[in-house]
Amino acid sequence: MDAKQVIKEQVTGNPVVLYMKGTPQFPQCGFSATAVQILKACGVNQFYSVNVLENPEIRQGIKDYANWPTIPQLYIKGEFVGGCDIMREMFQAGELQQMLEGVAQA
């Protein structure tokens, strides 16, 4: 299965997906760590994460899939939301909490 198909299945098969460097327990960059903190601040403790450092095809493929050059990338209900800075802005405005309401509260 090619990377694009794997990404599509991950994004559409899980309510909240975070493509990041490292894992939620051990992020490998500050941006990924911030993205995890923001999700937790929204009350989302369970989400599907993909460590892009483990697979170069997924790492490049997700950038092509979203047409977005950086990691992390957040998807909610199959839709691309953005990276760390966008997540932070949406969180501060209360928009991210609204998007996540009832989606993956655990």
The ordered H/E elements are HEHEHEEHH
Strand line-up in the sheet with most strands: 2-1-3-4
Distance between the termini: 31 Å
Please tally the helical runs, counting DSSP H or I stretches of 4 or more residues.
Answer: 5
Give the fraction of residues assigned to helices.
40-55%
| Sheet with the most strands, sense and barrel status | 4 strands, mixed
Number of strands: 4
Provide an overview of this structure:
- By secondary structure, this protein is of the alpha+beta class.
- It has five helices and four strands, in the order αβαβαββαα.
- Strands 2-1-3-4 form a four-stranded mixed β-sheet, with helices on both faces.
- Strand 1, helix 2 and strand 2 form a beta-alpha-beta unit.
- Helix 1 packs across helix 3.
- The longest helix is centred in the middle third of the chain and has 12 residues.
- It is globular, with a radius of gyration of 13 Å.
How is this structure best summarized?
This protein has 106 residues and is an alpha+beta fold.
Keywords:
alpha+beta, globular, 5 helices, 4 strands, about 110 residues
Topology diagram in text:
Layout: H1 3-13, E1 16-20, H2 30-41, E2 48-51, H3 56-66, E3 73-76, E4 79-82, H4 84-93, H5 95-100
Parallel strand pairs: 1-2
Antiparallel strand pairs: 1-3, 3-4
